[in-house]
Amino acid sequence: MSNYTSETATAENGGPPKREHPGSLTRGGAAKSLIERFGILIAWAVVIAIFSAIEPGNFLSVGNMANIFGSQAVLVVVTLALIIPLTAGDYDLSVGGVTALTSMIVAVLNGQHGWPIAAAIAVAIVVSVLVGLFNGLVVTIFGIDSLIVTLGSQTLLSGVVLWISNSQTVSGVSTGLVNAVVGTSLLGIPLEFYYAIAVTAGLWFLFEQTVYGRQLLFTGRGRDVARLSGIRVNRVRVTALMASAFVSSLAGLVYVGTTGTADPSSAFSFLLPAFAAAFLGFTAIRPGRFNAWGTFFAVYFLISGITGLELLGVPAFVQQLFYGAALILAVVLRQMARGRTEMSNE
Asked: Residues 154, 144: contact at Cβ < 8 Å?
């Protein structure tokens, strides 16, 4: 094999060999890696700085910060539910429906029929997990794309929620649940924010520290290879959709506990921002894979932008434009991050 190098070429052109200092390459690569990992935090800081300069008395006020962190806990948990099947290579479009169903079951059983709050919560969680099981079995047994199955489930759940609520907002949920979610605060931020942090930490542990987390990742990277490695791919996919439904049910509990009521339609609006945050989180903290902390920071980056625009008095439709554009950008960045990851593994 020839030993002809760039150093030889430089010498032949009449100059001394040019040597790259290995330390400079290492430092350059490390800096690039840090920017990729924590770019979402940098972008978030820039957004905060811009809106703080434009609205200095409003954006950084204690009330606004408490609203940003506390009011988006449900969206954080819904998005975390979404990334479990996404890691395994499946889509779950029913996360908003499961969130709505959970909140409505708790409100109907507890608020209208007088069930103890613990029993209503238990029934709601069990029903939600059964929805995930149904999705998983249909996807794996019949070989139908998860996108189609869960879209059908989302539509079905929308009808069920309207049916059991008689298309009405249901109130009267136990103050015990309401007080546990928003009745107290820590450092001026409602407890629901800390519940979101707890779920995020739990999913981080699942993805990074457990065998099942690695099985999810390997299944999503290549099902045929995962099967040859001894992973029971269909079981992983089914349990991923069940886990997604379970986490969505937790979002539903936080949602109904926030106001003490259940609305038959509003929870379905979480789907678009959840997808935008999930794919944006794919490019952060652990670029090239869906991860819990990247998702967490992506949600608050997006909501900070939305809140800033609202303070400026922009029309309501701009929120949809913002989330739609963020989703497209996030998918593009995700494809780029995945491409770099695959090249680095070759």
From this structure: no
Please give the residue that has the higher pLDDT: either 11 or 298: 298
Q: What is the mean pLDDT of the chain?
A: 85
Residues 313-336 have a mean pLDDT of 73
Question: For residue 170, which phi and psi values (nearest 5 degrees)?
Answer: -105, 125
Which tens digit of pLDDT belongs to each residue from 273-308?
A: 899 899 888 888 888 899 999 999 999 988 888 888
- Kindly report whether the global pTM for this prediction surpasses the value 0.70: yes
Q: Tell me the residue type at 25.
A: L
Radius of gyration over every alpha carbon of the chain, rounded to an integer in angstroms: 23
Q: What is the pLDDT of residue 104?
A: 96
The winner for highest mean pLDDT among 60-69, 112-121, 261-270, 309-318 is: 112-121
Percent share of the chain, pLDDT over 90: 52
Cα distance between the two ends of the chain: 22
The three state secondary structure string of the chain is CCCCCHHHHHHHCCCCCCCCCHHHHHHHHHHHHHHHHHHHHHHHHHHHHHHHHHCCCCCCCHHHHHHHHHHCHHHHHHHHHHHHHHHCCCCCCCHHHHHHHHHHHHHHHHHHCCCCHHHHHHHHHHHHHHHHHHHHHHHHHHCCCHHHHHHHHHHHHHHHHHHHHCCCCECCCCHHHHHHHHHCEECCEEHHHHHHHHHHHHHHHHHHHCHHHHHHHHHHHCHHHHHHCCCCHHHHHHHHHHHHHHHHHHHHHHHHHHHCCECCCHHHHHHHHHHHHHHHHCCCCCCCCCCHHHHHHHHHHHHHHHHHHHHCCCCCHHHHHHHHHHHHHHHHHHHHHHHHHHHHHC
How far apart, in whole angstroms, are the C-alpha atoms of residue 312 and residue 61? 15
